[in-house]
Amino acid sequence: RVHEYSNQSGFRRNIRVCNTLIDMYVKCGCLEGARRVFIEMEERTVFTWSAMIQGLAIHGQAKEALTSFNKMIEIGIKPNGVTFIGLLHACGHMGWVDEGRRFFYSMTTEYGIIPQIEHYGCMVDLLSRAGFLQEAYEFIRNMPIKPNGVVWGALLGGCRVHKNIDLAEEASRQLDQLDPLNNGYHVVLSNIYAEAERWEDVARVRKLMRNLGVKKTPGWSSITVDGVVHEFVAGDETHPQAEKIFQMWEKLLDGMKLKGYIPNTSVVLLDIEEKEKEKFLYRHSEKLALTFGLMNTPPGTPIRIMKNLRVCEDCHAAFKLISEIVNREIVVRDRNRFHCFQAGSCSCGDYW
């Protein structure tokens, strides 16, 4: 509606309005809308190109993001710091370490741009995700500016993915000084211990959280249907359609199992029985939101879900299968990026 109104009101040639439209479409998970605005623009500034590069990056279209950058350079538009945040995000979401290093160092050597804390954070995230944890740690130690909680948090996140407890504890010590009341960092450390079945350490971290008055942020997922936002939390039984949602999920589960689905209970970091872990998995908030969406939207229409935490490995595998079973495009915006599930695959290439 905003896009249509801007066109009718004569703002089609207003660069600032078009840049904002690109940003809006990107944040709503509608990359095609952003592309359409970009293509229709008669004039594009560095802000236009940077917004498009960033949008492509968080939607898993890293190759197109880098191609866009090359086109931008070819036509003589000089990049800025925001451009490189997009490029580093693109590399980080695909694990392109060499390309990321090259872009980071070219900022100063080729374009005279001094990296800011956001660029250092992107580099630590890139290295950590790819498993270069020691290099990421040394990179932090050699930063010319003081690292903040986001930088150390990126290292901590990589430690969880690659199960490096020693570096996780070092990152946690730094975060205790920089951001002691951030529940997310305590939860990540607790989960690292839980994956290693170090339950005493899990209890110690949780006790520390209680003493600090820090509570774990509950995971939630939301979906908009007919202009109404429906929000779900894990295990939610309060929704008016809860019973129908659970019944529909069982039908989806049968179809998934025929395609080889096996519940990944390793993501349930609780010391409980296997059957209880499966039940817990099946009530993840994004699964409830998706099932509700399938029940209440016309066949063939895209489903868009917003989630406040990182999507888990089991939900990711399930959504790939469901996208194929129901022949739908499913777009999930988690804490880090967009996942576009279609025909049994995801735009992230299973790297997130």
From TrEMBL:
PPR repeats: 14-44, 45-79
Flavoprotein in keyword set: no
Domain of life: Eukaryota
Lineage, broadest ranks: Eukaryota, Viridiplantae, Streptophyta, Embryophyta, Tracheophyta
Stated name of the protein: DYW domain-containing protein
PROSITE patterns reported for this sequence: PPR
Record InterPro entries: DYW_dom, E_motif, PPR_At4g14850-like_plant, PPR_rpt, TPR-like_helical_dom_sf
Keywords per UniProt: Repeat
Organism: Citrus sinensis (Sweet orange)
